[in-house]
Amino acid sequence: MTESLELYDVTIIGGGPAGMYTAFYSGMRDMKTKLIEAKHELGGRMRIYPEKMIWDVGGVTPILCEKLIDQLEQQARTFEPTIVLGQQITGLDRQDDGTFLLTSATGEQHWTRTVILAVGYGILKMAKLEIEGADRYEVTNLHYTVQELEPFRGKHVLISGGGNSAVDWANELESIAASVTVVHRRDHFGGHEKNVARMKTSSVQVLTPYAVSQLHSSNGETIEQVTISHVETGETQILNVDAVIVNHGLKSDFGPIRDWGLDMGEWHARVSEKLETNVPGIFAAGDFVEYGSKLYLIAGTFTDAALALNSAKLYIDPSADKAAYVSSHNSRFKEKNRELGVLE
């Protein structure tokens, strides 16, 4: 069954920051590497927020999310791994020799000695507004993500939600929109404290605990008014709007991965401090994993990636070095440095 397939040392499933950095670090360890991403572009969950500013990556000054994705992808391609886009892996079968045969939803197959799962929260879907007929406005002025800020300039914007993204969008739009109103069904906001405080002391109108209950349109094409209802008293208000942004979180679906015998909770796979799953030869990194000292930041994801890859390397060759040499002393970078005109 595997005779016609090329055998890889490691196959990374997932092309977000964890998967991309794993591909880069795998090159530092001279491993034959393949990365498979279900979507048709790399970036993972970061693609949902291309205009968000990222502040918490060490050594990187504030950077647009889409720019960070580009830099991560450029770094991931440093050692020319095989990158496969548009394939969702649904099947995993261990072969008699201990290798794995991976199968995609469309029938493609991949052969590998080890697997690193960097699937984040699985296939993510936006939680939609649960109002009958709301979907008709998605082509006009009902939004579930903010790709660009400029289209909202001078408009009366209503944001429904209370998480990081809702708070961030409110703060970003406050200076360019005619007005910004945030409606949240709880008094407490889940965003970062500093950002929530900034929102509450700005011109943004914050209405809690309210929820969007009706959408009104005279032409059946664009939302012109929104009815919000107090979640405790039922009291209603009608607000005039030019645009509605909904951020009710994401729904996650890990699909057939749950059938692979992994020790999984609702949101994460449980792994060791070395990023080993309970299935020998399968490792994991990034938001997908849970362990004692796990740090759910992009910076923490990079450490996960290196630890998982090191464990995969030692699984294949127990006599290998425990970790890669740093780039300043790693022979894999000598040619790269010469290409940059750096003499050693």
From TrEMBL:
It comes from Paenibacillus kribbensis. This is Ferredoxin--NADP reductase. Coiled coil: none annotated. GO terms for molecular function: ferredoxin-NADP+ reductase activity; flavin adenine dinucleotide binding; NADP binding. The lineage of its organism: Bacteria, Bacillati, Bacillota, Bacilli, Bacillales. Gene3D superfamilies: FAD/NAD(P)-binding domain (3.50.50.60). Belongs to the ferredoxin--NADP reductase type 2 family. Binds 1 FAD per subunit. InterPro entries: FAD/NAD-bd_sf, FAD/NAD-binding_dom, Fd--NADP_Rdtase_type_2, Ferredoxin-NADP_redctase_2. It catalyses: 2 reduced [2Fe-2S]-[ferredoxin] + NADP(+) + H(+) = 2 oxidized [2Fe-2S]-[ferredoxin] + NADPH. Its EC number is 1.18.1.2. Residues 8-293 form the FAD/NAD(P)-binding domain. FAD binds at E37, Y49, I89, L124, D287, S328. Its cofactor is FAD. SUPFAM superfamilies: FAD/NAD(P)-binding domain (SSF51905). Keywords: FAD, Flavoprotein, NADP, Oxidoreductase. Pfam families: Pyr_redox_2. Homodimer.
